[in-house]
Amino acid sequence: MKHKYFNGMVAALMLVFLFSGEVLAQKQVIRVEEFGTQTNGEVLTMNFSIVLSNVLVPSDNQLVFTPILRSESGEQKVLRSVVLNGKSRNNLYKRSLSLNGLGDGYIDPAVYSVLAVNSNTASTTVTYEEAFSFEPWMNGASVYLIKDMIECCDDEHYREELLVSDGIRPMAAARITPPTKKTTTPPVKKRTKEEEEAERLRLLREQEKAKNGLKPPVKKNRLVTTEGGFVTPPQQNKERHAERGEAFLYFRQGEAKILTDIADNAGELAEIDNILNYVKNTPDAILSALVIQAYASPEGDADYNLALSQRRAMALLTYVSEKHHLSPNVRVIAEGMGEDWDKLSDLVEADINVTNKSQVLNILRMPNVAERKKKLEDFDGGHVHQYISAALYPRLRRTDYIIEFTTPK
Cβ of 17: how many Cβ atoms within 10 Å? Predict the structure, then answer.
């Protein structure tokens, strides 16, 4: 397919943005060049270059650029981020990859590229091209580039937003039949980032399932959504079952939409589908209850994480309800459990790489959550918190489920 890119105002679009709040001997400049979009009606392709000149990135900091499409009515599409790590931050990043059994070349599915800044300033050009499903609201939407400067230990976070294009009108790409290629051997399929993430999560899931099952739910403040009626007590000629499991569904940061084509989400959902299909295909089996409990890691605001976990619980409930057409007689509960500090304590206790473990566990038992977070972030100069954030927090973002059903004895 031949690419033709629509350039909004001039043939070579160049936007220059000077971000405030940082003073350098030489002026630091961030500009976007050669912005263009195209669509074939199903897929929208966007490309541009981010040009950085003398941009300050301190050793312990992380600079993140995230493109976003946003319509006037509020719809938005968050694209993959470009990450620049300061020297110390990049060493921590590589250590976390090693601890999780990932190679230096691994990139999170939500990230477009990761660059290391060995000095305190960055001068480079990042060529960016992303293709994604086209939706009607995107025609006329504006494109923004979000700049996040995340300081050491993530306790400071500065955000700025710049307008790249005001109202895109993507041009349809020319349809050209590609020439037939003669080949004697099939091409070698390279492993994608999603496949690498799927393998990591599969191994993680197997480790979790090797343990002694789930703990009973802890009564705490949480958001609850309930549908359907009550469970009919099982008859004496029925045998009651309760299948418990953990689904390590991958969500993009701050989102609650289940994407089946990234990480190992398809495999996680297949395990739930297999149980429900077994019930559906077993004569006289009756599905009586489905309980979903979603958790979040403790970065940021606790109330936000509680609401986010609720939305993710509802996302899984919606998936199951639409695919399996649950009976109104099934008791269905979707619970947002918020931040899972109990699970974090278990992970810390079992991890041999956590230093000053007894002191860290004492911090995790502090009754005030805000004080607990602050104490954990400041402890030992922030080194323990950096490790826990990279190695343990991802394992807290999970969804537990219980599927109750009866079968004939």
Answer: 15
**pLDDT of residue 199 exceeding 70:** no
At 360 the pLDDT is 92
Task: Report the alpha-carbon angle 304-305-307, nearest 5.
Answer: 65
Token look-up 């473990």 returns 357
For residue 212, pLDDT beyond 80: no
Q: Which amino acid is at 89?
A: R
Structure tokens at 377: 């972030």
Residue 161: name the closest of 64, 241, 93, 260 by CA: 64
pLDDT higher than 70, residue 30: yes
Place of tokens 């993140």: 64
CA angle 404–206–365, rounded 5-degree value: 80
Which residue, among 138, 144, 148, 196, has the nearest Cα to 165 in the 3D structure?
144
* pTM tops 0.70: no
Name the band, by pLDDT with cuts 50, 70 and 90, for residue 372.
very high
SS (H, E, C) 2-26: CCCCECCCCCCCEEEECCCCCCCCC
Interatomic CA distance for residues 279 and 282, integer angstroms: 5
**pLDDT attached to residue 149:** 82
133 in helix, strand or coil? strand
Token look-up 């955000």 returns: 159
